[in-house]
Amino acid sequence: MTPLLSVRDLRKTYGPRVGCTDVSFDLYPGEVMGIVGESGSGKSTLLSCLAGHLDPDEGTVVYDTRDRGRVDTRSMSEPARRMLGRTDWAFVHQNPRDGLRMSVSAGGNVGERLMAVGARHYGDIRDSALDWLGRVEIEADRIDDRPRAFSGGMQQRLQIARNLVTGPRLVFMDEPTGGLDVSVQARLLDLMRGLVREMGLSAIIVTHDLAVVRLLADRLMVMKSGQVVEAGLTDQVLDDPQHAYTQLLVSSVLQV
Amino acid sequence: MIRIENVAKSFTLHNQGSAVIPVMSNAAFSVAPGECVALTGNSGAGKSTLMRMIYGNYLTASGTIMIGETDVATAEPREIIALRRNTLGYVSQFLRVVPRVSTLDVVADPLLAVGVPLDVARTRARALLTRLNIPETLWGLSPTTFSGGEQQRVNIARGFAHDYPALLLDEPTASLDATNRDTVLRLIEEAKGRGAAIVGIFHDAPARHRVADREVDISTFTPKVAA
């Protein structure tokens, strides 16, 4: 099987400071990988480099495209990379305001992604939007409301709908459940797990919530000071951590 | 089906003075299809540790753990995921599920993962839940709010939903009443009948004598403290 995404020796620095360094991994189709670590460990920098939002200093990010096979996304032209970001990839931001257009209706937010890939029939676009709002459990009569009028949890679900409507193969998520209360988190987790299985998605999820990765991710990478200190099967890393930092991280979780 | 050779394991506690605790060395045994092997030994001898190593939940320091054609000790994460999906089932003492998912779907889940159609998977899940005396009124609810015994039975139903060629059972009859205990033992006998290789931990001695063909004493694998 060909990896969907192959990352080798990725490095990004901010002047003298290291964002992330020496990151290598392969992500296979249908796999969900979690990246955990404390604030400032380089998780979000890594995610941005993978998704093409930041240009890494060194290394390669090879993606298995639908039409041209394996391509290093760093050598792609900007329009080609943007096209990838609108079709095959999706990026779910921690703050829904970064991923939504707050002054456009919920239906418009979902429809915009479709129009960006060429959909023009208004009725079809609205039907897709309604279908997706239903899948993320937003009432149909809210389709013309703006996200501003939605709760935080609804905004996050709308952002997921907007991202998945074009049928992406790879989803990047940056703290998708951060800032939501736990009952809403559970609902969102259940939803994401269902979507990942139904659509056969691959996903990379950055979070500092170990309970979230245990339920969502097949594999886990633990980052500290910009480096991956441990990687492996999620339950193995959490239940039998080898690195001192991972042991500290796991033993620091408060029991409910 | 299951073959364990020369397996060793130690825990290093980096944050507690880097204490190294050797827990196992030279562990070796094998289980044929249709056979049930019971792990015995005192608490702390390493029964659950060895079981978790077989499942790939704990890393194996050295040696080989073959399940069919896969060596769990050296396999890549995705190979272990495939192994767990198709070949190797595990009934642990704890139920870990996404909140909000109904009991019926929790039990049907392993079948859906191997591509069984939804209606077939749900029919099989209903049959198992009925056999294990989970009242039908609870099927639509998430098992997170159930009693300990009910959760244990949901866990067993989930573990027996797909016909895994290899099964690990960690105290499957703990906290069950006589009727349910009998049902679980019968499920184990049926699994043996269809050719599953089973490794179990049973503190319940009569249960162990009923289903296990052999016993492996784990304390013989426990490293002796240097004199």
Helix and strand arrangement:
The complex is a heterodimer of chains A (256) and B (227).
Chain A: E1 5-14, E2 17-27, E3 32-36, H1 43-50, E4 58-65, E5 69-72, H2 78-86, E6 89-92, H3 96-99, H4 106-116, H5 122-135, H6 152-164, E7 170-174, H7 182-199, E8 202-206, H8 210-216, E9 219-224, E10 227-233, H9 234-239, H10 244-251
Parallel strand pairs in A: 3-8, 3-9, 6-7, 7-8
Antiparallel strand pairs in A: 1-2, 1-4, 4-5, 9-10
Chain B: E1 2-13, E2 19-31, E3 36-40, H1 47-55, E4 62-67, E5 70-71, H2 77-86, E6 88-91, H3 103-113, H4 118-131, H5 148-161, E7 166-170, H6 178-193, E8 197-201, H7 205-211, E9 214-217
Order of helices and strands of chain A: EEEHEEHEHHHHEHEHEEHH
Poorly predicted residue ranges of chain A:
none
Any idea of the CATH class of chain B? Alpha Beta
Our Rg estimate of chain B from Cα atoms comes to 18 Å
Class from secondary-structure proportions of chain B: alpha/beta
Could you tell me the strand content of chain A as a percent range? 25-35%
Please state the oligomeric state of the protein chains shown: heterodimer
**What is the largest interface, and how many residues per chain?**
A-B, 24 and 21 residues
The CATH superfamily of chain B appears as P-loop containing nucleotide triphosphate hydrolases
Low-pLDDT sequence parts of chain B? none
Give the number of DSSP strands of chain B: 9
- Biggest sheet of chain B, open or closed, and with what strands and sense? 5 strands, parallel
β-strand amount of chain B: 15-25%
Strand-pairing-aware structural class of chain A: alpha/beta
Shape of chain A: globular
Calculate the mean pLDDT score of chain A and round it.
90
Q: Residue share in helices of chain B?
A: 25-40%
